[in-house]
Specification:
The complex is a heterodimer of chains A (about 625) and B (about 110). With about 625 residues, chain A is an all-alpha fold. Chain A contains 22 helices and 2 strands. Chain A has a two-stranded antiparallel sheet with strand order 1-2. Chain B has about 110 residues and is an all-alpha fold. The chains are: A mainly alpha (about 625), B mainly alpha (about 110).
Chain lengths: ~625, ~110
């Protein structure tokens, strides 16, 4: 072992507080369930353990909120360090944020926002789970949900491929198990096994791609990878002629494609969504998708950014063409397949596939736009709104399964007459998912598509205009299947033997909160979109620190890696590289434009020059 | 440091065993065999990681440890995946009395 390895700053653990609370709370829940197993019946345990889990969620939310607040206050302090903290902590928190734990995790605005988001979603999922008894092992069930949340939080914070792989596995292994938790139905076990097989194959593909990327660059840190790839010079950018690079890229894309359920890697999604208990489906569709998209953007828009290349050619020199094709196929297939579905959860699964396609439009735009952070921020906005709308929709599915034992769209017949208020909430959720103006779903699509249209490169403009047009057509198609839900609720007579009972708190709260979010951010989208766009800046620029400067390029026999980085080009990496002051976050777009302008008409004016303009005195 | 076996050989071996694993996942119908094929794929990636780590130039100050460390982590993750996978296969076996993945088809469309 090298004695010169840098030491971990133990104050870094403060930033893990929400994750630590949740991880420990999972154990507490397990032990409590064990203690209560002999004494209480399963439904009683469901309530007791559920409330206990919610207490842990509240605690974690408190920790995450306090952490964000302390960091913001300490950084806003203008005269020296804040006095209300101990000196060492005060000094620590007033740093501009960046990477912690030797550059493996990020601790910045994006991490803080997403921690809070994941914890709130976890709370809603846990609450929804308390609606009915679909299993008897409540301790294990709630512990797995909690640990999946830990995986998601760390996945969205990871700044390095090792951490990314481990947290991805933490998240998905917990989700495989919770999918199979509905013991009374055999389709739950089937959904779990299918999810597991597809999921672990995709993990293996991703890992193989990761190993090749590690071989090509000699490092696993996103910023260091970007520096190595960018140091090859503009003419060698892109993937043409780079077989190992293209293989690594494609394998990693397939791995992520499985996780976000993009066509053609979507086969697991409908079965897993239909088979899993409704709260778990909600957790897969929202939390897992959110975390995977953040990780995808970190890998493709940050680490592999030099390989994207503005080009109109189909499968051009960069990876943009591949993403565009996948995005187009995903949204079209998802929407048309959803038209044919009778099962509500299966329909939502295909709608979630279609939504992954829309979000990939934003990712494609962010990869080549000179407004990369704004485009990525609009994807984050869309993800947030989509998550809350979907939590509400899956709460409806939970309601159907609880009272009718089936979850077909026809089971919603006559709901408008029976409980008008909830039916109106569902109406709002569906309208937002279609993208009808006063609701947040519309603004999500609007911001994302506007960013996609705002292209500086003539090479990509046509491609992205075509993609946006396809996205708009797809939105029209999607209206048909969402409207079928509304038709069942408002235009049909209640039928069937079993009527829906009163919803109860655990169903009402997710529906109501989802509706509230959709309406509030539909009326005032401004604050959320600006927070998300500010959060996207550290997401795409966090310089890893730690090992970032110590990059080795493997030099085996007969093996020609990319040339080692130019020592002059690499910025001096300090553990807390000050790239992220709030003013810079604000000026990011301007800086990128300025850098793009200074590059003149030559093709690659992308994030790379802008990064240098930010981190150090501008290159001549 | 310099060994007689060139790096290429490791990479060919890893790529070959990865392909064997992938083909196994696609054509084997027995759930346990699918699980084994997945393990082969993970281990192929491990070979890559360790080979790249071994042949990389260790820079002064800090070695590129992630390669070999990730390999250790992957072994752990693979063990966790097997445990979960066997559990899920048992759950399905109890309901269908078969370990044939083609039989698990109660959902489609």
């Amino acid at each position: 072992m090298d004695p010169n390895l840098p030491n971990v700053d133990f104050r870094d653990f403060w930033f893990l507080a929400p994750a630590i609370v949740l991880a420990v709370w999972g154990l507490v829940v397990l032990l409590a369930d064990l203690a209560l197993a002999g004494r209480l019946s399963a439904p009683d345990r469901r309530r007791t353990i559920g409330w206990l889990t919610l207490a842990g969620v509240a605690l974690a939310l408190l920790a995450a909120g306090v952490l964000v607040q302390v960091q913001l206050l300490a950084q806003a302090e203008t005269q020296g360090t804040p006095r209300w903290l101990s000196p060492s902590l005060a000094e620590y928190f007033s740093r501009p944020g960046g990477a912690i734990f030797l550059g493996t995790l990020s601790a910045d605005l994006q991490t803080g926002v997403f921690n809070v988001l994941f914890i709130v979603l976890l709370g809603l999922v846990v609450w929804m789970s308390m609606a009915w008894s679909f299993t008897e092992e409540w301790g294990e069930y709630f512990a797995l949900l909690t640990w999946a949340a830990v995986g998601m939080m760390l996945l969205a914070a990871s700044e390095e491929l090792v951490t990314l792989f481990l947290t991805l596995e933490t998240m998905t292994i917990c989700l495989y198990l919770s999918t199979a938790f509905e013991k009374t139905r055999r389709r739950s076990a089937e959904g779990g096994l299918k999810y597991f097989v597809y999921g672990s194959v995709s993990s293996a593909l991703f890992l193989f791609g990761l190993s090749l990327l590690y071989g090509l660059t000699g490092t696993t840190q996103f910023e260091a990878i970007r520096e190595v790839l960018a140091s090859t010079g503009p003419e060698a950018r892109g993937l043409s002629g780079n077989v190992a690079g293209a293989t690594a890229f494609l394998l990693m894309l397939v791995g992520f494609g499985f996780k976000i359920a993009a066509v053609p890697f979507h086969q697991w999604a409908p079965d897993a969504y239909e088979g899993a208990p409704a709260p778990v489906t909600a957790w897969i569709a929202t939390g897992s998708k959110l975390a995977s998209f953040v990780a995808l953007m970190k890998v493709f828009l940050h680490a592999l950014q030099p390989w994207s290349h503005p080009s109109n050619e189909f499968m051009g020199p960069g990876w943009l063409g591949v993403i565009v094709v996948i995005s187009a196929v995903t949204m079209t297939y998802g929407n048309f397949a959803a038209l044919a579905q009778r099962n509500f959860k299966r329909m939502l699964a295909y709608s979630s596939i279609a939504n992954a396609g829309y979000m990939l439009v934003g990712v494609a735009a962010a990869s080549v736009s000179t407004r990369g952070a704004e485009a990525a921020g609009s994807v984050l906005f869309y993800l947030t709104v989509y998550a809350f709308a979907n939590i509400g929709a899956f709460a409806v599915a939970a309601w159907l399964v609880r009272d009718r034992k089936t979850d077909d769209i026809d089971d919603l017949n006559g709901l408008g007459m029976q409980s008008p208020l909830l039916a109106i909430c569902i109406l709002v959720l569906m309208l937002s998912l279609i993208g009808i103006p006063p609701f947040a779903g519309f603004f999500g699509k609007l911001y994302m598509f506007m960013e996609a249209l705002d292209q500086q490169h003539a090479e990509t403009r046509l491609t992205l205009i075509g993609l946006v047009a396809l996205g708009l057509l797809n939105s029209v198609v999607s209206a048909f299947y969402y409207v079928r839900v509304l038709k069942a609720m408002f235009l049909r007579e209640p039928g069937g033997a079993k009527r829906l009972g009163p919803a109860g708190r655990s169903i009402e709260i997710p529906i109501a909160l989802g509706t509230l979010v959709v309406i509030v951010f539909g009326v005032y989208p401004g604050p959320l979109i600006s927070v998300m766009q500010a959060a996207a800046v550290p997401m795409l620029t966090t310089s890893a620190g730690g090992y970032a400067s110590m990059i080795s390029a493997p030099s085996g026999t007969g093996y020609a890696p990319l040339p080692p980085p130019d020592p002059k080009a690499a910025p001096p990496a300090s553990p807390k590289s000050p790239v992220l002051s709030p003013e810079m976050a604000k000026n990011y777009g301007a800086l990128m434009k300025q850098a793009a302008a200074s590059m003149g008409p030559s093709p690659p004016p992308k994030a790379a020059p802008a990064k240098k303009a930010e981190g150090q005195p501008k290159a001549p | 440091m310099a060994s007689d076996i060139p790096l290429n050989w490791f990479l060919y071996f890893a790529a070959a065993s990865f392909s064997i694993g992938l083909v196994g996942v696609l054509i084997r119908r027995n759930a346990i065999a699918v699980l084994m094929a997945i393990e082969i794929m993970l281990n192929a990636a491990n070979v890559n990681l360790v080979a790249f780590w071994r042949y990389g130039n260790a820079p002064a100050g800090a070695g590129p440890l992630p390669g070999v460390i990730l390999a250790l982590f992957v072994i752990t993750v693979a063990a966790a995946e097997v445990a979960v996978g066997i559990g899920l296969i048992l759950l399905c076996y109890r309901r269908w009395h078969a370990a044939d993945v083609d039989r698990y088809d109660s959902m489609s469309g």
